[in-house]
Design goal:
Layout: E1 8-11, H1 15-24, E2 32-35, H2 38-47, E3 52-56, H3 65-75, E4 80-85, H4 90-98, E5 103-106, H5 111-140, E6 143-144, E7 147-148, H6 152-164, E8 171-174, H7 181-190, E9 199-203, H8 209-217, H9 234-237, E10 242-246, H10 253-265, E11 267-268, E12 277-278, E13 282-287, H11 291-296, H12 302-308, E14 311-314, H13 325-339, E15 346-347, H14 349-357, H15 363-377, E16 382-383, H16 390-394, H17 396-401, H18 407-425, H19 430-437, H20 441-451
Helix pairs in contact: 2-3, 13-15, 18-19, 19-20
Length: about 450
């Protein structure tokens, strides 16, 4: 049985190799074309669609297989290329893999091995297509990798994540502590072509300076007191995946130089070692500080900032996305009631208004911890405002006197409070509430969903 939708092009200057591969792979594809030179191969590649190219390194004519591989990948970055040669060396294999080859096979060819690699190439392509479909479905759902938000500010963050996730560009995420910067980093990883690789997060602010170099780059046995064995660092652990450097602005001047050198050269050595190691990671960093101010006072290198900040993403504070607070509370209630085996709880309207108006200096992390505490300690089914933590209650006067961030936020806050008050007075009877508000039931239903007034 042939596999439709996986056309193959074979490029080799030996007729016997071309015909042998074509016959041997007839069950692996519905279309197999051959070419005797790189130039002919390029011509056929331009005139038809091929998902896999099998090419010899040494070809008659002016272009070899490695150059052909580079040109094919420029035309179609999704095409898989298997390189074959009778003169297999480590250097040739390295050159082929660096140029983007899917695999490298030495002659004389083992047809079973070739078939196996062709199937792997096909499976790899199908997996990428499935990942792309998953990315599209996640994006359409308005929720990315456990990041929940419907307000305009979060939709803008979602849009940026979708735009840059599939690229290799370094990203710097800025935002207050607890706002969800690591979740954004994980979303960038989950929606990227590196999603099958590891996601390694390291908090540079919590790392002693004496251990930071070893943590990032690893060390050899005996390289310092206590180094009883060889240990790979974060750059090795994250190979093929994403390395998330949190609180990157807390690094010392020396560590900043070391990081900049690795970002520029894509190479490093372990502490106490001599072997140069190639790094294959995507670096995403985060900070809760104003980097331009740190550059101005000399505590952070400007050249490192430009390396890390190719794509900036600003995560809004919870105060800037108050519309999302009811939605987040509902999500955390469901999560923690299930986790701790508690019956589902509800937030009374007055309590919800107080929570929406609170200042939340700890952002989403503070909100999450508070909801878990309420789930564990509260015995009733409905949580009233006087049962909220004291710090939330005490913050209400300041929150009430605080000016909204914009006119639209002021209008939405007023609308939310009015709808909540009318719903409470009408015992959440939608038709009566809609009449009192002078809107249709459908409009009221939409507004209730928007403001989390269930």
């Amino acid at each position: 049985m042939t596999h439709s939708g996986f056309p193959i092009l074979i490029v080799d200057d030996e007729p016997n190799i071309r015909s042998g591969l074509k016959k041997g792979l007839v069950k692996e594809a519905d279309l197999i074309e051959t070419a005797a030179s790189a130039e002919e191969g390029l011509e056929k590649f331009h005139s038809a669609t091929f998902h896999l190219v099998i090419a010899d390194v040494r070809l008659g004519g002016g272009m070899d297989g490695i150059e052909l591989l580079k040109q094919l990948r420029q035309i179609d970055s999704d095409v898989a290329v298997i390189v074959i040669t009778a003169h297999g060396t480590v250097e040739t294999a390295v050159d082929a893999m660096r140029a983007g080859a899917f695999d490298f096979i030495s002659k004389p060819l083992d047809l079973n091995l070739v078939r196996q690699q062709v199937r792997k190439a096909r499976e790899h392509r199908e997996l990428r297509q499935e990942n792309q479909s998953l990315r599209t479905r996640l994006a359409d759902a308005g929720e990315l990798s456990n990041i929940i938000g419907q307000c305009a500010a979060m939709q803008d963050v979602f849009h940026q994540i979708r735009q840059v996730a599939a690229t290799e560009a370094t990203v710097m995420i800025q935002g207050e502590s607890g706002s969800g910067k690591e979740l954004v980093a994980r979303a960038l990883h989950d929606l990227s072509d590196r999603s099958g690789g590891p996601f390694v997060a390291v908090n540079l602010g919590a790392m002693p300076e004496t251990l930071l170099e070893s943590e990032l780059f690893g060390h050899e046995k005996g390289s310092f007191s206590g180094a009883s064995r060889q240990k790979p660092g974060c750059f090795e652990q994250a190979a093929g995946g994403t390395l998330f450097l949190d609180e990157v602005t807390e690094m010392s001047a020396k560590s900043q130089v070391d990081l900049l050198r690795v970002l520029e050269s894509k190479r490093f050595t372990r502490v106490g070692g001599e072997q140069v190691i190639e790094t294959d990671v995507r670096v995403v960093s985060a900070t809760n500080k104003s980097v331009p101010e740190l550059i101005q006072d000399g505590s952070f290198r400007e050249d490192l900032y430009y390396r890390l900040n190719v794509i900036p993403i600003e995560v809004p504070s919870l105060r800037q996305r108050r519309d999302d607070i009811p939605l987040l509370i509902e999500h955390f209630l469901q999560h923690f009631c299930t986790r701790h085996g508690r019956p589902m709880k509800q937030i009374a309207p007055d309590a919800m208004r107080a929570l929406v108006a609170a200042q939340w200096p700890g952002n989403v992390r503070q909100l999450r911890n508070m909801v878990e505490r309420l789930v564990v300690t509260h015995t009733g089914d409905v949580i009233d405002s006087d049962e909220l933590p004291g710090d939330i209650q005490s913050s209400q006067p300041a929150a009430a006197n605080a000016l909204p961030a914009s006119l639209s936020e002021a209008v939405e806050t007023c609308e939310r409070e009015m709808i909540a008050a009318v719903l409470a007075e009408c015992d959440f009877h939608r038709e009566n509430s809609a009449k009192r508000l002078g809107v249709s039931v459908r409009t009221l239903h939409y507004k209730m969903g928007r403001y989390g007034l269930h």
